[in-house]
């Protein structure tokens, strides 16, 4: 029971980031809201791997992961884009922004029912995690990106999520390499934003990043031990 609770805790952390992101966006702290979505990406990349590592995969965990993804990478980015790009359009802006979680939820549902038959080497349609992360990154540098670019990207991502375009999967990449790439990339993004804005980051940032680095260190050490045993 405890083993299954550990990966679920990462998933719930992802969901918590999505909720906090909506709150920060409503308060006008858009960069903090975007960073929380990126932290959610980090946690989302960990829960499934932790479950496989502990041999604790479950149907509950899979369903919980999908629900968390809808909030963190669907609802939260939609609110972020609304407040930063569509707010001037009033109710029409709300209606347009709402399309993002709708398309994302459809994409997740389709993925869940085809997960057993689809190839692990590619995704069909852009994953909602990647789509939400792209919108978060656009918001981080929104003062340098015209609204038309955000609007076009937003529209394209909505349709790409439900398209049948084959997107390469990184599941076959060994964890240390994959985890290191994500950590270094997000760390650089967060550092650049801090240097530009000097905004106070959510305290959850200081919990998520050390935890993620410790997890990668553990996996690297475990892989070394397995190599020695061979």
Q: How many alpha or pi helices?
A: 9
What strand order characterises the main sheet?
1-2
Which overall shape is indicated by the principal axes computed on the Cα atoms? Answer: globular
Strands, count: 2
Tell me the name of the CATH class: Mainly Alpha
Fraction of residues in helix: over 70%
Spatial separation of the terminal alpha carbons: 31 Å
Mean pLDDT rating = 78
CATH architecture: Up-down Bundle
Order of helices and strands: HHHHHEHHEHH
Radius of gyration, CA atoms, in whole angstroms: 18 Å
Tell me the CATH superfamily.
Answer: CDP-alcohol phosphotransferase transmembrane (TM) domain
Poorly predicted regions are none
Class by SSE composition = mainly alpha
**What is the third-level CATH name, the topology?**
Four Helix Bundle (Hemerythrin (Met), subunit A)
Main sheet properties: 2 strands, antiparallel
The tally of structural domains comes to: 1
**How large a portion of the residues is in β-strands, by DSSP E?**
under 5%
Offer a concise description of the structure.
The chain is built from 9 helices and 2 strands. It is mainly α and 230 residues long. The protein starts with a helix and ends with a helix.
Care to describe what's here?
The chain has one domain (2-229): CDP-alcohol phosphotransferase transmembrane (TM) domain (Four Helix Bundle (Hemerythrin (Met), subunit A)), CATH 1.20.120. It contains 9 helices and 2 strands, in the order αααααβααβαα. The protein has helices at residues 2-26, 30-53, 59-86, 91-97, 99-114, 128-140, 147-161, 175-197, 204-229; strands spanning 122-124, 166-168. 77% of the residues lie in helices and 3% in strands. With 230 residues, the protein is mainly alpha-helical. Its main location: membrane. The chain crosses the membrane at residues 91-110, 122-141, 147-163, 175-194, 200-218. It catalyses: a CDP-1,2-diacyl-sn-glycerol + L-serine = a 1,2-diacyl-sn-glycero-3-phospho-L-serine + CMP + H(+).
């Amino acid at each position: 029971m405890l083993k299954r609770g550990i990966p679920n805790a990462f998933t719930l952390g992802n969901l918590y980031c999505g909720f906090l992101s909506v709150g920060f966006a409503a308060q006008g702290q858009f960069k903090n809201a975007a960073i929380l979505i990126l932290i959610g990406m980090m946690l989302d990349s960990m829960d499934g791997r932790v479950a496989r590592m502990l041999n604790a995969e479950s149907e509950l965990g899979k369903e919980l992961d999908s629900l968390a993804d809808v909030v963190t990478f669907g609802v939260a980015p939609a609110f972020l884009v609304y407040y930063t790009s569509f707010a001037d359009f009033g109710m029409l802006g709300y209606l347009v922004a709402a399309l993002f979680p709708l398309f994302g939820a459809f994409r997740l549902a389709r993925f869940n029912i085809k997960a057993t038959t689809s190839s692990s080497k590619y995704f069909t349609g852009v994953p909602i995690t990647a789509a939400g992360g792209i919108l978060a990154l656009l918001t981080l540098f929104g003062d340098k990106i015209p609204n038309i670019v955000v609007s076009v990207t937003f529209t394209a991502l909505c349709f790409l999520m439900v398209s049948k375009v084959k997107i390469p999967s990184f599941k076959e990449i060994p964890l240390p390499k994959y985890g290191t790439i994500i950590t270094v990339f997000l760390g650089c993004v967060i550092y650049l934003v801090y240097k530009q804005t000097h905004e106070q980051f959510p305290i959850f940032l200081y919990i998520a990043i050390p935890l993620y680095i410790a997890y990668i260190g553990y996996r690297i050490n475990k892989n070394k031990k397995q190599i020695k045993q061979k």
